[in-house]
Amino acid sequence: MGKRLLFLILFLGILLQVSAQEVKVEGYFLQDSAKLGERIGYVLKASYPKEKQLIFPDSVYDFSPFVLLEKKTFISSTKESMTVDSAVYYLSNFELDPSLFLTLPVYELNRYDSVAHFPLEAELKLKLTLDSIPEQLVFQENNVYQPIEKKWNWLLFGGIALIAILGLGVFFWLFADRIKKIWNERNEKRRWKRFQRRWAAATQNLKNENSMNAADELLGLWKGYMESITNLPIKEWTSSEIGEKLEDIRIFSSLRSIEMIIYAGKTLEIQEASDYLLEVAQEKFHEKLSKIKHVRANH
After folding, report:
1. Peptide bond connecting 98 to the previous residue in cis, omega within 30 degrees of 0
2. Do 201 and 195 contact (CB within 8 A), yes or no?
3. Which of 91, 116, 152, 204 could form a disulfide with 66 if both were Cys (CB 3.0 to 4.6 A apart)?
4. How buried is residue 214: exposed, middle or buried, by Cβ count under 10 Å (0-12/13-18/19+)?
5. Do the Cβ atoms of 81 and 20 come closer than 8 Å?
6. Prediction pTM value
């Protein structure tokens, strides 16, 4: 009986030690309710063994239905082989739902992939500031007629407005497709120029810092643009799947060169890899532009 009891105590001790080494994530709002558009803070904390590598979401993460305003990070603290990281995300809400829920992941980086740890959902209630409407409306009595000056020929004005509306309707009906194609082409060009600026900044940031966060931001920027222009779920694919689906093995090797900074913490020369990824994005941009122009020419 004594041996069984001793074995049970040792077994429970091992379980407690193992559970203490797990990644623990906590997320909550700094207030339980907020006005429409008000700036509110969401705290994300992670406690994990110091030998593990964890990263928090950044600006490329989809915070819907909230809008990210700012992210503040804090210095990690380690005590008795456990590390604690935390960040505060300042968000705004423009939805009219009575309650909104949010849970942000913390990514544990392994050798070839990553594991997402989610805290419990945090609730934020909408705070309405409209005054209550009285049960019975009170109108101001005024039985004095006011003279109205007639300076406009409203009949003529209405006729002109009706003709203008009809003219715009006919114009839109005749040229709607062409206008839409021109608008789409202009939007694609603007989006490409914006991507080029962000890519140059992110690449320079990675060269200067050579950090996991800078590498993750660069990969997220490229995958997000490629997904938007190809309508393919590129964010959900691994590097090998992207190279296979796009039928270009060099894409895989370029992505892996940057991922080695994230997963292996290696300091690498990434100029060639970043230049090729930009070249691939530019090629897809020109393909999209050619399709838009081709459709417009056929109309």
Report:
1. no
2. no
3. 91
4. buried
5. no
6. 0.41
Can you read off the two tokens belonging to residue 146? 């006011």
Between CA 255 and CA 241 the distance in angstroms is 11
* The residue type at 109: L
- What the block records as the tokens of 21 is 């080494």
Candidates 249, 277, 263; CA nearest to 114 is 263
**For residues 63 and 278, what is the distance between their CA atoms, to the nearest angstrom?**
26
The arithmetic mean of pLDDT across residues 97-121, rounded, is 90
Q: How many CB atoms lie within 10 A of CB 84?
A: 14
Q: How far is CA 101 from CA 44, 145, 280, in A?
A: 14, 55, 38
Instruction: Give the whole-angstrom CA distance, residue 210 versus residue 170.
Output: 57
